[in-house]
Amino acid sequence: MQQEPTTKPTIQCEASLGNGAQQVSKKDVRTAVSSSTIGTTIEWYDFFLYGTAAGLVFDRLYFPSDDSGIGLLLSYGTFAVGFLARPLGGLVFGHLRDRIGRKKTLVTTMYIMGIATFLIGAIPTYDQIGVWAPITLIALRIAQGIAIGGEWGGAVLLSVEYAPKSRRGFFGSFPQMGLAFGLLLGTGAFTLLNIFMSEQAFLAWGWRIAFFISILLVIVGVYLRSKIAETPSFRAAQKKIEGFERPIPLTELLKDRLSRRHLILGMGTRYAEGVAYNLFAVFIITFATGTVGFSQIQVLQSLMIAALVLAVFIPLWGRVSDAISRRMVFGIGALLIAAIVYPAFWAIQTGSWLALTIVLVIALGVAYPLMYGSMAAFYAELFPPETRYSGISIVYQVSGIFASGMTPFILTWLIGSFNLIAALGYVIFSCAVTIVSTLLIRNRDLRTVGDMEHDVILSAK
Prior knowledge:
By secondary structure, this protein is an all-alpha fold.
């Protein structure tokens, strides 16, 4: 008598789940969107505090050097370390979320980020504990990178997968607004500290206050995330494979030819987005204060104004991407950054605070969100639900190592070794890569909403 196999049958996850509809209440949608937006705001506040501090204080406190340029390069090097750790967070939490859900690991990433940020504020200086100061700073920066690597994909998918068919770009843009709000809170915190204390007090201990505040924000974020329910798309995917051995998301992702193609092209599209943000939100701080001669308060005030404009245009361009091709919106953003980067830095070098503010508003507030506002829905449509979190996390986090994390370091090195023209040429090169990659993602390659998941219909509750 032939024995029955003792192992569970395996299945190949398909790209399509059909065109069925799932009804969800408006209350569930509001809870998911608001919690993901507030959560990403807190996470980006923590993550970008480091970027601001790297340009203002870390080079002097943790990387002392007779050559200020070397100290700055070392400081930006630790900034890049966080981006090196992000793919690890994306892979680990992507694997967990594609298997056990979008919701369950979001609280964990918030705890990791909040605790790491708080501890950064408590690290003694190089003069106090020697080499252990930069070593501890790097270790906590790695923890930040792992947390944000696991955060982004889960947060945007909460919004995208709860969205009705015709509004995925708009809904997906809300957690993206967390970047603008996080930048606003981070620069706002440092601006207030600079206003109400002397430069000596700020350097000695004042900057630490902004990092300590993080623990209060984390408490709020954890409470909100405890209220969310799992997304309709994930529930549908789980129901489909119920009773079968669950495949490993990364393995399934790499098996699919179209998914492999979208991984490569998606990382190419991300290049200009990462370079543009870190050019105008991170590198600009040291360039404007150290090279041009602006005060720290002037630069931070300009960034705060640009962040407010950014918060407005992220959902606007997200909504536009629902009406026209997301590829078009994304590509126009890269084209505009390439077109304005040289005039922007010429205007900044005039030394006019008004010129600096106008440049940041146009570049960071209006042009950049053409890419960032449409990104969540754009990337989500590249992968099926069973592997979507892993897919968008790899695209966003792996490309972020070079596109984002290395940008301040590369620009500083290019200016020191060559000149500003060479540094800005690098920015234009990144835009060219993004435009070509975006064009190669054909409309026929994109998975339609029906192929993406069961559609969501909002009920009146």
